[in-house]
Description:
alpha+beta, 393 residues, 53% helix, 13 strands, Alpha-Beta Plaits, 2 domains
Amino acid sequence: MTPKRHLQAERTQHAMKQRIEPSSGSNATAAEQLAAENQLLQQHLQKLIAQARDNEQILHRHHQINLKLIGAGSLSELLGCIFHDLKISASLDAITLLAAEAEFDLRRAMADLKIDRHAWPDLLLLPNMNSGDIAASRSLRPELGPFSADRHRIMFPANRPQPASVAIVPLRRQERLLGYLNFGSDDANRFNSSVATDFIEEQASIIAICLENVINNERLKHIGLTDPLTGVYNRRFIETRLQEEIRRAQRQGYALSCMYLDIDHFKQINDQYGHQDGDDVLREVAARIKAELRLSDSLGRFGGEEFVVLLVDASGAGARNVAERIRSGIANRIFKLDSGRTCQVTASIGVATLTADNTSQPTETIAQQLIGLADRALYQAKNSGRNRVVCGS
Length: 393
């Protein structure tokens, strides 16, 4: 090989070596890039961890405020929880509640309880306002977006803080519109169409149930419509509530069922164990019935060992299923009495359901017929062997 060709070969080998073996400078650059990428990944991971912690705290606050709402023992306590605790927990700048008076009757309840309405300026009770009036131009889904004085004046009156963005959330019970729960924020971007509404819909549902429940309980305390032994409603309340629910069922078009229950051989229980243990049985039966009911249902003691249950929005088949659960819950668990003794208890149940055939009659007549039908079904259950459910027809 000539010196010239030898020199060219050495140059070629050197160039190939450079391509195959990066310089120390190139190694340093790659290491720096990896370190930078790793740092970015670490920062991203830290952000995800922080976001997860924030979400966990939000869920915890949401859970805690719901427990406080459910645990409110009076109307004033519940309103304080809504307008103060919920406002702080959700970091809101404004919150109002617009009630449909035709459904809630908050005004009369507050008057009966001597609650000063002016102490709750964010509770909006508009005279002669019913659900049809306030729903005429609104969706039954939450409405999120910028505040509009024209559209939202009824929810945020001029004498109250005017937010930048709002969430208008319907309060609904059994397909009835009870009013609106209204959230406001000074942040124009807080509420917009891209925000998920799961939390606020759940909150509104809980508040609607709690409001209806606490108002009923407060009115109950006011006019003394509870049975002192069992703590459930008494006959007077059930008869009044039945007429109210019949009118609502006629307006709203939902089913209404009535259940008449009688403890089997209760006289023998009193004779064998004594009246004090008999009272324990009555209290426990009431507790077991109540455990199978929803917040919208009503349980009352009609006297002696008889109980009546109103099941709202319940068909005949649905009512029978509830009655069977109640019967089974009483019969299949031993009763432990305060005296230390135990006994076996069973109950017979008659069920009746409001039908379209008798809705044209006066409400009081319909109520008497419905209870009478359930009572006759109970009589059939007793005559056919007890510890069973019979549906009237």
